[in-house]
Amino acid sequence: xxxxxxxxxxxxxxxxxxxDLTWIKSRRASRLDPERLAAFARRYRxxxxxxxxxxxxxxxxxxxxxxxxxxxxxxxxxxxxxxxxVGAWLRSLFxxxxxxxxxxxxxxxxxxxxxxxxxxxxxxxxxxxxxxxxVAGEAKLASIEKMYATPLWEQIGAESxxxxxxxxxxxxxYVFHNAGIGLKCFTxxxxxxxxxxxxxxFNAILLGTxxxxxxxxxxxxxxxxxxxxxxxxxxTAIVLSAGxxxxxGWSLIDTQGWGRAESLRRSAPRALQTAGVATILFIFAAYxxxxxxxxxxxxxxxxxxxxxxxxxxLLYFFVLGNWNRRRRTHALR
Length: 333
Hints:
333 residues; mainly alpha; 2 domains; 82% helix
């Protein structure tokens, strides 16, 4: 077959590929017709073959340049990275992810592990101070007692003009510290999930021990005033980080027939979404810890913040999570 005949026969497909490109550029990804998109991908692959043939048979220079440009534009559209859409992100955050986390057994395992060890250590430290000394060390406990011997808002000058700037700096430190704990819980999950559980257990026992010891200390009032407001968000974020890490580790054990690398790749998005929610909670907790917890607000106001944040967590996970599940079940009927 002559080169001119090949060009004449393939030109209609090239023109259609041009129309496909115009169509794709004029629409959002959510509005693309899957069938036409599949046809576009087939035409793109055919155009790639045509370009290779043009180079091998030495098509006219203008035709070869045209195919180069056409294939390049099609490649860009087919393999372009997804742009960030706030609406899609919010939909995922408030519609898809709550139910996903709620029904993830790894999160429930992390939740049970943390609170059983936290409460157990807290009760033991409250009833037997020597237990607290054995776990946390006498020097550390003495340092914490000294820190809360006077109201924190008096120490940092909550009524002073420099309070806002000093608290903003402290908030950055809290974000860094809390994110560090969450990152350890998450990344250590790569060791078959055991690393996440060990990191979670360590933090649960240490925190529970400090809480129990301080609740029977003479500094109990000042300590309670500081930890109450930001506690719900911060502790929940630790649990979610460990649950996300455990999800990664479990994918290496239960591969569901895939290779371990492929199983890990498939589980990573789900784990990262859970870790993302934990990061948001860590940030919110840091701002509460930086500006509300050390402030001169009465304890009732700080307790109200804790109650409100707890209600928000329950609404997010149980109400939104179950609502989306019921909505999908109804749609399938």
